[in-house]
Amino acid sequence: MAKAMTLLWGAGSPPCWRVMIALEEKNLQGYNQKLLSFDKMEHKSKEVLDINPRGQLPTFKHGNTIVNDSYAVCFYLESQFKSQGNKLIPDSQEEQALMYQRMFEGLTFYDKLNAVIYYDWFVPEGERHESALNRNKEALTTELKLWEGYLQKLGSGSHVAGPSFTLADVVIFPTVAYLFRFGLSAKRYPKLGEYYNLLKDRPSVKASWPPHWLENPEGQDTLKDI
Amino acid sequence: MAKDMTLWWGSGSPPCWRVLIALEEKNLQGYNQKLLSFEKGEHKSKEVMDVNPRGQLPAFKFGDIVINESYGACFFLESKFKSQGTKLIPDCAGSDNNCALIALIMQRVFEGNTLHQKMVDVFMYNRRVPENERHESAFKRLKETLTTELQMWEGHLKKTPGGFLAGENFSMADVIVFPSVALLLRMGLSEDKYPKLAEYYKKLQGRPSVKATWPPTWKETPGQELLKDI
């Protein structure tokens, strides 16, 4: 099964990491994979464009099936491989509902993170404004307080949508890991810090940990004052 | 079931419209609903904030369950009411065809978010970006990005002869994406430049769930011309 899969991915990409965590959780180790470089513009190479006309990573193929959006891949894998690996969508109606709610809030969360840490990547030099970046930082701060609140309500040791590890964790943990990599203060955001510690040693997370983070254990401090 | 549901929504908002369509498709007519006005700031009212601290619409409650993300509500409704109304996501029980179909549906569902964002980036530019931060170059780029995106969807529709986004059957992809396409046309998108999108729009306009939930404010006022040159 995994041998019929190919993942083209890039370092520094939470969406790619989501797919890798999902593959591990569903016991699909052994998939073909290729690490590409965003800096060298390899996401716009023919190899990627042939599969994904958007020239984006992750790009994922399973036999003749192509799925390139990280959330889409996660849902696809959970559907097709429902009965193997870990169950990622809970049966309980309440847990499921909270999982869906948090998963899709996760898209907003990720956008707000990008708007700060990748501001210069996304905005051409002549269009950058201190005022815009400040506004983005305030938006991220508001967003972070929401997630602290969510985790606080669920209690210690909880996953992001309740007692079980679900698709919500698959898609949200990478965002949280990036927050800390970029210097977020665990003192100011203790619940997020707890959540990060809870999952950083989970097998699927360890197995897919960004290789350049292993080489350079120290991250950046872009978010230290957030 | 529907009687235990309440939806707070705004007319013409694609995220709200997605949930309205999903409720119809799953035969959940009879839910409680409250139409609010974005212009009057009612999405920031206490009534909404009590359900959705983000002060956004749609806000959706089902008993004690609260789901304020349109995608989340649609997925939840499909999951909970799988066996009634239209099947929006097929089952995939070792059947390769259905699994590949799920992949296509999911791909289009999530590309729908990209389409919607790019559209909003253009028509909300002046509302979101303070005057001193606006650049002709930025706005031009956003329009070009939207154009490229729309051409991609023209391509998608050319490749699915069934007429729906994922082939021959109406699916979750149509629930999610149709409202954005309708808004594009409402805002003046050229039917000549985007014939497949126009065809898709006309095809779905006649669908019962779409007719039943057509934005009331659109019936009263003409559209705009903002996107006619895209």
Automatic annotation (TrEMBL), chain A:
GO terms for biological process: glutathione metabolic process; L-phenylalanine catabolic process. One of its GO terms (cellular component) is mitochondrion. Signal peptide: none annotated. GO terms for molecular function: glutathione transferase activity; maleylacetoacetate isomerase activity. SUPFAM superfamilies: GST C-terminal domain-like, Thioredoxin-like. Residues 92-226 form the GST C-terminal domain. InterPro entries: Glutathione-S-Trfase_C-like, Glutathione-S-Trfase_C_sf, Glutathione_S-Trfase, Glutathione_S-Trfase_N, GST_C, Thioredoxin-like_sf. Residues 3-85 form the GST N-terminal domain. It holds the Pfam family GST_C_3. It comes from the Eukaryota. This is Glutathione S-transferase A-like. The gene is LOC102211280.
From TrEMBL, chain B:
It comes from the Eukaryota. Residues 3-85 form the GST N-terminal domain. The lineage of its organism: Eukaryota, Metazoa, Chordata, Craniata, Vertebrata. Residues 98-223 form the GST C-terminal domain. This is Glutathione S-transferase A-like. It comes from Pundamilia nyererei. Gene3D superfamilies: 1.20.1050.10, Glutaredoxin. CDD domains: GST_C_family, GST_N_family. Belongs to the GST superfamily. Signal peptide: none annotated.
